[in-house]
Structure formats: C-alpha cells, structure tokens
Request: fold
Amino acid sequence: MIRIIITDDHPIVRQGIRQILEDDRDQRFGVIDEASDSAGLLEKVLRNEYDVILLDISLPGRSGLDILPDLKKRSPGSKVIMLSMYPEEQYALKALKTGAAGYLTKSSAPEELISAVIKVSNGDRYITSGLAEIITHNYFYGSGEQPQDILSARELEVIKLLAAGHKLNRIAELLAVSPKTVSTYRSRILEKLRLKTTSEIIRYALNNNLD
Reply:
C-alpha cells in the first residue's frame, strides 16, 4: 500500500485529491495524510514515513519549491510530485532539477494523478508528454536564459501578483509573509532582471507570459 501526504493550503483541493485516491478501484493507496502548509508538512515527515508527497508549489510562508531540499534531507525515501496551477514551461524543469520526481498541473485528469503516484512510488520519474517536449527542445536547441532559471519560485510568484495589479501589502497577505519580505523579493527581482521600477517588472512579466 502506498503511503501519501497531500500538501495544499486549500481544503477543497486536498479533499478532491483524497477522493480520487480513495476511489482507486485497485485500492493501492493506504495512509492518506494531509498538511496545509510547508511547516506542517516538515513536521509530519519527521514523525511519519510517506512513499509519495503531493506538494503544491504555492503555499503560505515557504513555497513548495523552497522546501524541497529540506524534504530530501528529512525524508530521503519519499518521492515528491509537485502540483501547480501554473503550466509546465514555467516551473516543471526547476522542480525536477530541485529534486521532484514529477510535476502535474491541477487541471490534470484523475487517471494521470494516479499513474504519476504509482510510477514515482516505484522509483521512476513521471514526465508528461508536454514536459518531454520541453526537455527535448532544450536539449537540441538550447533553452537560453529563461526567467524561471533566474528567479526563485517565490520571486516568480511575486512577479505574477504584481502583473495582476496587486500592491505589496496585498501580496504579503496572499503569500502569508511580511510586507518587508515582499519588498526584499521585489529588490531581488529588480537586481536579477536588471530592472529599475515595478512598472518594468510588470512589463517584463507580460512580455514573457508570466501574467
């Protein structure tokens, strides 16, 4: 039986994923645990063993990508599948390079989720056809320097929220961090992308399909 923990800050998402796993006709999933944020997940992996960790990228406090190295240290036997509302070309390669065994968008079919969990629990990586195309293209043609390679996962989130028209205080609320922390992210973004103003960040986001 495959032991799983679902980590997402939205209860309705956790419940939906749990239902998919519990409805598996072959009943291949045993313990199905839940965590609502990165801190809760890190605590649980110290007390329990899981075969597969389903981990949302966008979490309050530290993001899913940010805690991947800690997860590998605390629970080296667990395989991580990143879940995200964002398309593969924005985060998937970064997730795999950071230590994830697979990447799924939240629009994936239930059957794909089950297939991914089973495959990574057997020690393999789960690569969708879309992600395979991205990897192949990068191998043969070179990817160039992309924003997802320059910026951290949290910095990408801040860019997207700025592009959506949110102010720094509102972004702090959405990410469950302090306004000072968001200002630090903004400063790092400006430095890394060699920009000068928030308006230039927004323009950069629109030009690179990060909105």
